[in-house]
Amino acid sequence: MKKILSALVLLLVLAATSCGTRTTTVVEAPVMQTSADSMSYVMGLNIGRNLLGIDSLLNVEALCEGLRDAYNSQPLLRDEEARAAYLKYMNYDIYERVKQYEAQFLADLRKADRRFVATSSGLTYKVHTLGDMKNTIRNNRDTVLMRYRVLDVAGEVVDTTYYRTDTVRLNVGSMSRGVIEAAKLIGEGGHIEAWVPSTLAFGSAGCDSLGVKPNTMLYYEMWLIDVEKR
Fold first, then answer.
1. Which domains, and CATH codes, for the chain?
2. Which residues on adjacent β-strands are paired with residue 126?
3. Which of 73, 70, 47 is nearest to 60 (CA)?
4. Does the global pTM surpass 0.70?
5. Which end of the chain has fewer CB within 10 Å, C or N?
6. Who's near 213: CB < 8 A, 6+ residues apart?
7. Which pLDDT tens digit goes with each residue over 164-195?
């Protein structure tokens, strides 16, 4: 809450000091019933925008009810019940929320670009070049020479072979389930884009070395240059 209030104060300060430019535009402060009403609405907007960035699945009606109950000192839940509900949501229900978010994201992606298709596991991919399907991954002992880049949902680079002189040879057994599945779809010489749901990527553990948080879906673009059978 302190962070939200600090953001609001900063917003108001910036608004108050923005008249230092050559062209000054005076905007009349809107007033609802009272000035306090307007201020309350502004605070609600800022709190809502902050919460939307944290969790877009929150129930707005229940949230407003909680605010009213807090002001009226008539909470529906005792402190220990509220704590239990919070812990359940953050530690157990998160998997359902992640699953719901990823499913909607990938459905919207397939609707926007019909070339993307999904497998039964949830991997959503688009093949650019189909390689030699007679020479593809057969087991976890095989090795592959690949070029790839990995992004998160926000489009930030997670990993790329550019950092490793452009290509890297990997043991298939060291690759995530989603990457293995995507590589099997193209064969040697193939090129594919694939969205890998969190359960097929690094799961609830995440990956500290790459800075991947738990339950994170990833985007891969891969070029399968060579497959060496073992």
1. 2-18+25-76 (no CATH), 115-228 (3.10.50.40)
2. 193
3. 47
4. no
5. N
6. 206
7. 778 999 999 999 999 999 999 999 999 999 99
